[in-house]
Specification:
Elements lengths: L4 H5 L4 E5 L6 H17 L4 E5 L27 E5 L10 H6 L2 E6 L10 E4 L6 H8 L7 H15 L9 H11 L5 H10 L3 H12 L2 E3 L4 E6 L1 H7 L9 H6 L6 E9 L2 E8 L5 H7 L3 E2 L3 E7 L2 H17 L2
Parallel strand pairs: 1-2, 1-3, 3-4, 4-5, 7-8
Antiparallel strand pairs: 6-7, 8-9, 9-11, 10-11
The structure holds adenosine monophosphate (AMP) and manganese (II) ion (2 copies).
């Protein structure tokens, strides 16, 4: 890395941190870990995290209750964007725009770097793993280790996905040596679902449709169904992975309606389909095996448009 985080932040009085809309475990873990680290290393600076309200399951992470989801008028000497580029910052975009110095740290292969200073490492499985590598190990403590661990387990599917490397496992081993209750953290933040989340997942699985000779599967939850279950987007996490777990599937698509004729699309693929390439075509992005985008049109328009790109890749294998 050609620049030093602490050197770049040392003169800042006010440092803001944010990540993407609909923050996931890696995003929440990375933002809170960065806040803890900067407060520890640069005690004279004011540090604050801005995020859309994250799922309550992350409440045990230090600093969770201080997360600002109101996005009032503020200005920052340094603004740090984690786990995304500026296009997915949502309401935090204006802090980024007006900041004295803009820093972007991420691991999405589709992110070209949006800051004055960038550190994008696509070969690493989680932004929290990237942060582990750039933080001074002497400063780690139990709370910081827990936040980094949450990010790593969420983006690697508990060290299961192909973005897991021997180095990821070594970092995981070091992190759990700080003595937090990791089995409970895994159960409560990753596997556990509320009754409603389980109901809606059941419905999505029941209504899923296979196509392309059973190699693709799609399921969609529209706004009426979301309202019926009183569900929010974060209640839909994990559905696309469950679709991908079905035997014979090379590409799983999960969509939920965000507006009239607008859907958030999640893709999970085998090595036969590059999900980031498909999502990038529709203005989204992500990783080779997991990516997402927002699409306009009817459900059938979206599936037809996605299918063209998926089919091309499947035909080539
Ligand atoms: P999701 O399906 O939303 O869980 O996203 C899968 C992966 O793709 C995650 O790493 C996301 O951060 C990334 N991703 C999702 N949507 C977008 C988007 N619109 N632009 C860039 N990356 C995305
Ligand atoms: Mn993320
Ligand atoms: Mn991530």
């Amino acid at each position: 890395m050609e620049w030093n985080l602490l050197v770049e932040c040392q003169d800042a009085k006010r440092i803001g941190i944010s990540g993407h809309v609909r923050p996931d475990g890696d995003c929440v873990g990375a933002c809170l870990a960065m806040q803890m680290y900067l407060r520890k290393c640069l005690p004279q600076a004011q540090v604050k995290v801005f995020l859309e309200k994250p799922a309550d399951i992350f409440r045990e992470l230090k600093g969770f209750d201080e997360i600002d989801s109101a996005f009032g008028e503020e200005a920052f000497d340094v603004f740090i964007v984690l786990d995304c580029a500026e296009d997915r910052l949502g309401d935090a975009y204006r802090y980024f725009q007006t900041a004295g110095k803009r820093i972007n740290i991420d691991h999405h292969i589709t992110n070209k770097g949006c800051g004055d200073l960038n550190h994008i490492v696509p070969e690493v499985g989680a932004t929290c793993e990237v942060l582990y590598d750039l933080m001074d190990g002497e400063k780690l403590d139990r709370e910081l280790a827990m936040a980094l661990y949450v990010g790593i387990i969420h983006d690697t599917g508990i060290f299961q996905y192909s973005n897991t490397t021997p180095a990821t496992m070594e970092k995981g081993a070091k992190l759990i040596s700080y003595g937090f209750d990791f089995p409970r953290l895994i159960q409560e933040t990753f596997y556990q679902k509320t009754y409603i989340q389980s109901n809606i997942m059941g419905r999505a699985l029941l209504e899923s449709i296979r196509f392309m000779e059973g190699r693709c599967i799609v399921s969609c939850i529209d706004r009426k169904v979301m309202q019926f279950y009183d569900a929010e987007p974060k209640d839909l996490d994990g559905i696309v992975n469950q679709l991908r777990n079905i035997g014979g599937i090379d590409c799983a698509i999960f969509m939920y309606q965000t507006d009239v004729l607008e859907y958030k699309v999640s893709l999970r693929t085998s090595e036969k389909v590059n999900a980031a390439e498909v999502a990038s075509f529709f203005g989204g992005g992500g990783h080779a095996r997991a990516a997402g985008c927002t699409m306009r049109g009817t459900f059938h328009d979206c599936v037809n448009n996605l299918s063209l790109h998926i089919e091309k890749q499947l035909d080539n294998t």
